[in-house]
Amino acid sequence: MCGIVGAIDTELSMIKGSDIVEAITLLRERGNGLGSGYAVYGIYPEFKDLYAIHIACDNEYAVQEAENYIKAHTYVKAAEDIPVRNVKSIKWHPNLRRYFVKPGPNNEDFMLKNMDPGNLQTEEEFAEIYMKNFVFDFNKSIKGAFVMSCGKNMGVFKGVGYPDEIGEFYMIDRMEGYIWLAHNRFPTNSQSWWGGAHPFSLLEWTVVHNGEITSYGVNRNYIEMHGYKCLLQTDTEVISYLFDFFVREKGFSIEDTCTILSPPLWEEIDEMEDDKEKKRIKLLRQFYPQALLNGPFAILVSNGSSLIAMNDNLKLRPLVAAKSGSRYYFSSEECSFEILCPEREKTWMLSRNRPEIISVKEIEYV
Amino acid sequence: MYSLYSLMKQEEKLYELSMEKNWRRPVRFEPLFDYDRCSGCGLCATACSWGEIRLIPKKVENGKIYSMPVANRHSCGGCHYCERQCPEGAIRIVERPFVSSHRYWREDQENLWRQADPNKKGHILLISNGSDSEMITYFDHLMFDACQVTNPPIDPLREPVELRTYLGRKDGSSPLLELNVPIMFSAMSFGSINLRVQIAEAKAASIVGTYWNTGEGGLHRELYSYRENTIVQIASGRFGVSPKFFKNCSAVEIKIGQGAKPGIGGHLPGEKVTSEISETRMIPEGTDALSPAPHHDIYSIEDLKQLIFAIKETTGYEKPVSVKVSAVHNIAPIVSGIARAGADIIAIDGFRGGTGATPRRIRQSMGIPIELAISAADKRLRDEGIRDRVSLVAAGGIRNSADVLKAICLGADAVYIGTAVLVALGCGLCQRCYANKCAYGITTNRKDLADRIDVDLATEALVNLLSAWNDEIRELMGGMGINTIGSLVGNRDRLRGVNLTVEEMKVLGVKQAGL
Ligand code: SF4
Ligand code: SF4
Known about the structure:
The complex is a heterodimer. Chain A is of the alpha+beta class. Chain A has 11 helices and 18 strands.
C-alpha cells in the first residue's frame, strides 16, 4: 500500500508545490514514514538545455568521488548543494548535490567527435544514450552514492520520512512546476533507504508506483538484456526503464507502450470488433510478453510532456482522476482533490487497462 | 475351457525353455494370485501379452476341468496390466526383495546376468522410457513463492488467469504457434506408438488448442485433418518427408537429438514395420527402419542453418521451424548457435526424456537434467541479447503441472510431455516399449493389443489431463499473484531452492529458500 498523487497543466502554467505536499500528506495513512518523494517538471527554466543531475551521497568521501566522476564524464556548467531545511524528525540525511551538465568530459565538442558518423543518430539521441549509460555506470561504480534524477528542466526530491517531512525538508512549498508526481511509501518488499524512495527516474522519465510487480524477474531479465541495469533493489525502477526503452529507444508511441505494459485480456482481444485495433494489440502482446507488468499496481509516469496514469489489468489498486480547466489530477484517493481542485468539472475512476495519457500543449524544449 | 492336453503341452514347452543351457533369468516381479478370490476366468492369461501367466488345471468337478492361473516367473515386467484387469482383484504384483552386497545395485547385477546369458549372444541392453536413475530431480528441490499481505493472491475462479502462449520468432518473419496451455505432446513416432494413440493425441490437441508432434515416423494420412495442431518432425532417417507432409502441419521440427539417447540414432525393428508404417515412413515393409546418429547433411551449425532455410523456403516461410536437441553439457552455446542459425523454436530434451528404445547405458549416463539445461540456455540467450528471437521448449521429465510451471520459471516458454501422456493412457512404466508387446496397447503395433486402446476414451483422457493441469497451473499462478503466464517465463525470483548446493543454485539462477 502506498499513496500517489500526480498533477499536470496542459497549458504549462505552474502548479504550486505546497498544494501537492498537502494533497499527498492527506494520504498519510497509506505510508509508514519510510519513504516519500516528489518529481517536478519545469523547475529549472534557466538551465532547460542542460541535464540536471540530482545525486545523494552517504558521506563526504562519496561526495568527492561522485564529483570527480561527474567531472570526468560530463561537462559541468553549474553545481550546488540542494538547499534543505532542518526537519526535526529527519535525523540523518545524505549529502544532496545537483549538477547541471552537458554530456561528454570537459568538452563541449565531445558529442560531435564521438558520435558514430555511420549511425543515423541525432545529437539528441546520442546525448540521451550517453547520459543513460552514465547513470548506470555511476550507480554501479560509486559506492554510497546514487543518481536521483538526471533529466532536463526537472528534478526528483525524495528521502526517508513522511511526505510532509520530506516536503518541508526539500522546501517543496517554494517550488512550482507544470507536472508533479508525489509518493508516500509503505515499503514491503525492499529495505528502506533514500535510494529506495519513489519517484524513480531515468532521463526525462519518472515513475511513482503503488503496488508490487510480481513479474519483476521477467521484466528485469528483459530490460537488462537490452542494456539497462537494475541496481536500486526495487521493482519500480524497471517501469521507468521500460518506458525509456520502448518510447525513446524503439520509437513506440506512448499508447503502444501502455498496451505492452498493461494489455487487455486475451478474451477481450479475441472479441474486439475493430480489426485494426485488434491486430495492433494482439501483435504487441504476442511480441513483448516479457515487458508486461503483472501484479497489482497503479502507476503515474511522466516524461515532461505527458502524464500517464495506468492500472494493472485486474484493477487491484486504486487510482482516481479529476479535471479542472487545463489541469488534470490523479490520486490514490479522491480526498486529495478537495485540496488540489475543490471545484472540478469531472472526477472519474480509472478503469483497468484504459490508461489516461494527458499531454501538454507543444513546448519547444522537450 | 482349456483342454488338459494343450495345457500340458504348454507346460512341457516352458520346462524345456527353462532348461536350455540351464540359465535362469533373475526374477524381479511376479504376479501373486489369491486363489480364494480367483474365479478361474482366465482373463489374466490373455491380458498379459508377455506370456507370464499360464493356466493350469487345478481341479476336476462334474467332469469339468477347472483351471487356475499361475506365474511363469520369467517375463513379468511389473506393468500391472493383469492386476488392473482382474475382475476379482485376485492379482497382486510383487517385487521380490533383493539383497546385494558390495556396491552392486540390483540393476547392475541383473544386467550382468542378462548380458552373459549363454542362450543369447552378448548384446547391448535395450530399455525404454526415460532414465530411472536415482540422480537428484531438481524440480523436487524448487519451491514457489506465494502472495501474503503485501500483494493479493488472485483467485482463478473469479479473476482471469491466462495461459495463452505464442511460440516462434517474434518479429513477424513467420507465423506464431498459438497454445491455449503451454503444454504440447512430445514427439512419439508412428511405429513406436500406434496410430490409435496418435489419433487420440491429435484429437486432444485440437480440442484443447495445443500441438502434438508426429515424431520421426512421418505423418499418416488419417491425421492430415489435424494439420492445425500438428508439428511434423524430420529426423536423420527422413522418414515420410513429402510435399503432403509439409502441407499438413503447423510447424516443422528438426530432431537433432533426444534426451534419452543423445548422440545416437533410432532403430525400429523390421517386425514392427507393418504395411501401414511402411507406407507412412516410405520404406519397404518388414525392413528395419534405421535413423543414423547424425543427419548426413548436418555436420556443423552452418549445415543446420541451410536445412532450416531449406525448410522455410519449401514451406514458403509459412511454418515456424523448431530444432530439438538433447540437453548436453554444452547446451548453452549450442542453443545460442541454433538461435543464430535461424530456428524459431528450440526444444531441449533432458536426460529423463522417454524413448521407445535406447541402449541402457546411454540412457543412464548421457545428457543432463532439463532443469539445469533450460536455465543455462535461457541465461545464455539473455546474456547475448537474443532471447526474444526464439522460443524455448523444455522436455524430458515433466511429471506434473508444478514441473511445467517450474520449467517455465527457469526459462521455458512451453513444455513437451511424452511419458506423462503414456501414463495417462494407462502405461505402467515397465520400460519395455521396444518389445512390441505393450499390454496396454500403447507402444505396440500388434493389432490385437493396439485394439485395447479406445480412441475416444483415450482422447477424453488426454483432454482431461490437460484441463486438470491447466486448472492446477492457474491455481499456482493465482497463489503467486500472477495472471498471465508470460510474466513467469524465466522469472526465477518466484522460485527458491531447498537442499541444493551453491553451485547448483547458481546454474538454476535461484536463491536459497529463506533469502
Ligand atoms: S500383465 Fe504385466 S504385470 Fe501382469 S504378469 Fe504380465 S507383465 Fe506382469
Ligand atoms: S507403454 Fe511401454 S512402459 Fe508403458 S506399459 Fe507399455 S510397454 Fe510398458
